[in-house]
Write a structure and sequence with these properties.
This protein is α+β, with helices and mostly antiparallel strands. Helix content is 40%, strand content 28%.
Length: 229
Amino acid sequence: MSKPLILALVAIAALTIVPALIEGSYVNRWGKPPDLAGAAQRVGQFPREFGAWKFVADGDPLHPEVCRQLGIEGYLSRAYKDSGSGAVVRVLLMVGQSGPLLRHPPYICYANMANEQIGDMTKFQTAATTPPGEFNLLVYKQARSVTNDRFLVAYGLATDEVWKVPTMPRIEFGAAPLLYKVQLLAALDPSQSRADGEALIKQFADDFSAAFRDHLKAAEQKPAERSAT
């Protein structure tokens, strides 16, 4: 067999096999990752208090069909209140299959609900991890609102303790065995500016990221402690 033909066959194999492996990860063709159930349990056990934030209410449950379409193995939906200022931030923390979760970015979901995006999507960092975490931030006006009813949404993706919002998330996370996804929502009253809302949601994201980091580390230490005894 000639060398050019061999090189051509290798190139074809690479173009065929690599995308197939990635796509296999998207749809769990190779079987359900063994740690998804454990990750779902960790999400459900996320602290109800951290920093100045305390749990005040559960959010609406996700419809089973939504969980199926998004490949969600486990999630929590909660509202937390700052014990000092009384500000409330809503959290939707999910874990599941990377492919389906990546196919539904929040900016598409909120636009599909007829909310009007105000301004461009921006990015901010949190300092709880090394490297720093990243979140995308959007501001919306509520659908069919006749007043200045606005809310902010920040979101990030992670396979470990560091939240990220890469430009090409499929390249970064497409082959990951599991993916965490978080959405943070804070409503603005008419007297508050966008800057007020950004300061609030960034503070919450900082505290949440630290709590998430500590929660994952504690979960990793427990199996090691059991095996040592």
